[in-house]
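lol forgot to send this yesterday, sorry. struct tokens for the thing we talked abt
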């Protein structure tokens, strides 16, 4: 399974889909996959932005490819050091900003079904050796002309080729609640979403059963360029 691509269907780096296309993007289109910040004082500001190439966009699934070497935006501490170098107790309250950086290592295939409060990412090692799926619990994505926006919910799940799975980042999930970034009711909903995702894993439903680990990107695709206005406010958003 490879990325479908027709000459002329890909857009110039940084270009946005035109209104004639409506709410669907074509394979080869380049869009932004963004996350809003939830740190105190920064709520709603975009702090993660990843230019990606559309693999598939249907009523059932949005699939995008983030190529190795893609320039992205990530949150960092105010002095430029990694957020994960800050002790967990103050990780979400320490002053922070954003920085541009390259995505190194293997690329990432991201899959999201409309309305699901999670997306599923696929990771490969050298030589396209499949490593694992990663369930990122998040707000259902809002679509706009240039891409999709969401908000990360801290808690994640790793899923392995032998169909085993495990919770990830439970310490960060707990700290987010202690730091006031997530109330009790929202935390309950996130746990409920996680249990729903686990049910899909244990049933080996879509996308785990769909063979996406055999997918490969079209070699004609160019790496999207991070636009200067990566943090722009969309004029209109839909779910």
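and heres what i got for the seq, position by position
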């Amino acid at each position: 399974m490879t990325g479908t691509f027709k000459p002329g269907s890909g857009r110039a780096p940084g270009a946005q889909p035109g209104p004639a296309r409506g709410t669907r993007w074509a394979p080869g289109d380049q869009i932004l996959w963004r996350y809003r910040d939830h740190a105190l004082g920064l709520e709603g500001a975009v702090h993660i932005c990843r230019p990606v190439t559309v693999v598939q966009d249907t009523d059932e699934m949005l699939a995008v490819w983030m190529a190795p070497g893609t320039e992205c935006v990530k949150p960092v501490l105010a002095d430029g050091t990694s957020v994960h170098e800050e002790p967990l107790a103050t990780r979400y309250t320490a002053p922070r900003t954003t920085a541009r950086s390259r995505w190194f290592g293997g690329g990432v295939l991201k899959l999201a079904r409309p309305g699901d409060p999670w997306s599923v990412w696929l990771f490969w090692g050298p030589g396209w050796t499949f490593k694992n799926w990663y369930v990122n619990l998040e707000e259902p994505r809002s679509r706009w002309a240039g891409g999709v926006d969401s908000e990360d919910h801290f808690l994640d799940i790793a899923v392995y080729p032998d169909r085993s799975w495990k919770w990830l980042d439970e310490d960060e999930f707990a700290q987010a609640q202690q730091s006031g970034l997530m109330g009790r009711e929202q935390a309950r909903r996130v746990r409920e979403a996680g249990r729903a995702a686990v049910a899909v894993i244990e049933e080996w439903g879509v996308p785990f059963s769909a063979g996406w680990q055999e997918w490969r990107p079209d070699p004609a695709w160019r790496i999207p360029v991070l636009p200067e206005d990566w943090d722009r406010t969309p004029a209109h958003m839909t779910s």
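The longest strand covers residues 46-57. anyway ping me if u want another try
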